[in-house]
Every structure is written in C-alpha cells, then in structure tokens.
C-alpha cells in the first residue's frame, strides 16, 4: 500500500494564472486513509483527482506515491503504471459483458492464468456482496449492484490507491446512504487508500478519515470530519459545511484570548484570535443545533418564533431578532413552541466561531 504526497500542485486550463483550476495545492494522504476532496462545482476537486490519476499533466508542483514521483512538470507516469484504480460517476461498466467478464477485464489484459482469474473474481464478488450474480448483465442489476461491479472491477487488480469520482451521485437517497456504509467497510477490509470526490457534505462527514475542503481552486482546510465541522478554518468552510447561522456582530473588548461580542439581542464572551481588537466588525458563526431556546416573558426586544417546522427527529425554528435577523435553530421535538412566542436564546460559545466581517 502507499500514501500520496501532493506538493505545490497547480493546473490551469487558461492563460490566466489567477483563474487556475487548482492553485498551489499541498496535501499529504497517509497509507490506508479515506480522504475526501469536498467542495462546490468548479472548486478544483475533480481536476485534482484527474491529476492524481495521471490523466492531466500539472503546470507546477509534483505528486508522489510513496517515494516515487508519478507526476511533475517534466513528465507523468501513465495511468496503467501508477498502481491506482478509478471508479467513475457513471460506473462505465460494459453493457454487453456479464458481471464476471466486467470484473475480469483488467485481469485478462494482464494475461493471468484462467484459474487465477476465476479465483480472484469470485473472491472479489463475495467481498462486494455480488456472489451468485456472475452471469447477469448490467441491465439486470440495480443501480447499487452496478456500482459494486465498478468497485469490484477496480479492486480486483489490487491497486494501492482507489480514486472515486462522485460514485454515489446517481443513486437514490436510501441506496446512497446504504452504499456509504458499504464503501467505508470495504475500505477498512482492503486497507487501500481511498481518494473520494463529492460535493455532498453529509457524504464526506460519514465516510472520511480526512476531508480536504476546496474552493476557488484553493485548499481551504484539511482535517478530520469533526475538526472541519466544529472548528472551520474560515468563513468559506463554515458556510459550506452544513447548516449555519452567520450573524453580523461587533467586538466590544478583548483580553487574554477572550472576546466580548455583541449582536442584536445577543452578547457573549468566547475565545478569539488576539489579532482582533475592540470595534472590529465580525461574523459570528453558530450552527442551528448549538443554540438553545426557552420561552420567556414577551417584550419589545425579545426574539420571537417566526416559523416552526416538524422534521421527525427534531423541530426547526425560525427565530426573528429585534433587527429582523433570522436565526435557524434546531430543538428536540419535546420542546413545543409556537409562532409568535417570545423566547430567550443561549449560544454554546464553545461551538461558536468568529471571523472578520466580509466587506
């Protein structure tokens, strides 16, 4: 098995260096790691995957697998010699071949003995829960089964690294959730390094050991799912990773790493960067699950429930502050508040972040 080291990687499709698809990217992927490249369309994640696969040549920087340089400005090792497998968004399995022949395709190209091919394919089909379906054709399979065929075909050649380009995006919600679990279990059983591309935050959080959040061709944050979700590095990451409230606020004072922050109807003290100073405009970032509500005596300044949506395992409230700012707050269904109720709100300051206000 092998890890991947990406150093100062840059790739542009135009002459404008400021419009590069990937700019000065640095990521170290350890052996047996599940890394997800996450971000919106156009952020550079698929270009990065294609650079790792060897389909594109970098304009600057290099990619190493273990100690071997596989991509640089001076040359790119061809995809077939990189020790990698690739699973595409549309599966790309042969419609005229049976499940067995699809999975055996790469082994036949390597001219392995027929008995070895049969044994390897049988073992791989059992690993991906397709045992007994060897004679079926793709049109006789469900979407999830077709995805497993694509996975088996990539894994049977025993790659050191598996690259996956939004492989679950064509599946319905329930099947996508089930396949997430199967993918993670498969990665643990095989011990292969996975590099996975998606724009789905929930998918990234559920699958990954490490998440690389990308935006505008730049790496915004690299960390564990919990770190990226709970301790976003900047406003871009905070806004992209799940639901969040971004509230304009002002720094009233700061001392010994603690800042007093005020917004409409909200004053709190929390850890802060010492580069902030009194009077600075900031954005207070807090997720809906980190605000608590309590019914209170009505007043002209008290926040009020503007809307209530029952979602089964939780209730989502829209709460209006005095200046019209709306907060999205999630609470347990046992808490029963109604539109028009006056409420007191309490922030979990340990789960809040503050960033310089955007101009």
CATH superfamily of the largest domain: P-loop containing nucleotide triphosphate hydrolases
When the domains are counted, the total is 2
Would you tell me the structural class of the helices and strands?
alpha+beta
CATH class of the largest domain: Alpha Beta
Cα-to-Cα separation, first versus last residue? 47 Å
How many E-type strands?
A: 21
- Going across the biggest sheet, name each strand in turn: 7-8-9-3-10-11
- Low-confidence stretches are none
Strand content: 25-35%
Rg for CA atoms: 25 Å
Just name the CATH architecture of the largest domain.
3-Layer(aba) Sandwich
User: Which fold does the CATH topology of the largest domain refer to?
Assistant: Rossmann fold
Observed structural traits:
single chain, globular, OB fold (Dihydrolipoamide Acetyltransferase, E2P), Rossmann fold, 5-stranded antiparallel sheet, 359 residues, alpha+beta, 21 strands, 6-stranded mixed sheet, 8 helices, 23% helix
Explain what the structure shows.
This protein is α+β, with helices and mostly antiparallel strands and 359 residues long. The chain folds into 2 domains: 4-239, Rossmann fold, CATH 3.40.50; 243-356, OB fold (Dihydrolipoamide Acetyltransferase, E2P). Helices cover 23% and strands 34% of the residues. The protein is built from 8 helices and 21 strands. It has helices spanning 45-53, 99-109, 114-127, 143-155, 173-190, 201-207, 225-230, 235-240, and strands at 4-11, 22-29, 34-38, 60-65, 68-72, 75-76, 84-87, 161-165, 193-198, 210-215, 218-223, 245-255, 258-263, 266-271, 281-286, 291-295, 304-310, 315-320, 326-331, 343-347, 353-356. It has a 6-stranded mixed sheet, sandwiched between helices. It has a 5-stranded antiparallel sheet with strand order 2-1-4-5-6, with helices on one face. A hairpin with a 2-residue loop joins strand 12 (245-255) and strand 13 (258-263). Helix 2 crosses helix 3, helix 2 runs parallel beside helix 4 (143-155) and helix 3 (114-127) packs across helix 4. It is globular, with a radius of gyration of 25 Å. The protein starts with a strand and ends with a strand. The relative contact order is 0.11.
């Amino acid at each position: 098995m092998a890890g991947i080291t990406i150093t100062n990687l840059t790739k542009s499709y135009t002459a404008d260096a400021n419009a590069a698809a990937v700019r000065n990217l640095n990521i170290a992927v350890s052996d047996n790691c599940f890394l997800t490249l996450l971000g919106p369309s156009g952020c550079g994640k698929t270009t990065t995957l294609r650079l790792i696969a060897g389909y594109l040549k970098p304009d600057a920087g290099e990619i190493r697998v273990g100690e071997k340089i596989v991509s640089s400005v001076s040359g790119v090792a061809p995809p077939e010699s990189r020790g990698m497998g690739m699973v595409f968004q549309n599966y790309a399995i042969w419609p005229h071949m049976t499940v067995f022949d699809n999975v055996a395709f790469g082994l036949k190209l390597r001219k392995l003995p027929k008995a070895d091919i049969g044994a390897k394919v049988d073992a791989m089909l059992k690993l991906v829960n397709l045992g007994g379906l060897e004679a079926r054709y793709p049109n006789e399979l469900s979407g999830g089964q077709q995805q497993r065929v694509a996975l088996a075909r990539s894994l049977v050649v025993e790659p050191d690294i598996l690259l996956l380009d939004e492989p679950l995006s064509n599946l319905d919600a329930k099947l996508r959730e089930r396949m997430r679990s199967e993918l993670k279990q498969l990665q643990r059983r095989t011990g292969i390094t996975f590099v996975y591309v998606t724009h789905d935050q929930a998918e990234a959080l559920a699958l990954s050991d490490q998440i690389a959040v990308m935006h505008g061709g730049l790496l915004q944050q690299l960390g564990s799912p919990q770190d990226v979700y709970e301790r976003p590095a900047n406003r871009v990451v905070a806004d992209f990773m799940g639901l969040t409230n971004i509230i304009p606020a002002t720094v009233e004072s700061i001392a010994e790493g603690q800042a007093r922050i005020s917004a409409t109807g909200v004053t709190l003290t929390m850890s802060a960067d010492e580069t902030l100073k009194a009077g600075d405009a900031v954005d207070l970032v807090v997720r809906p699950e980190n605000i608590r509500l309590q019914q209170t005596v009505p007043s002209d300044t008290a926040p009020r429930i503007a809307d209530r949506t029952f979602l089964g395992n939780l209730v989502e409230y829209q709460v209006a502050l005095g200046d019209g700012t709306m907060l999205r707050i999630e609470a347990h269904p046992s808490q029963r508040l109604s539109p028009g109720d006056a409420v007191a709100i309490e922030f979990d300051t340990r789960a809040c972040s503050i960033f310089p206000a955007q101009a």
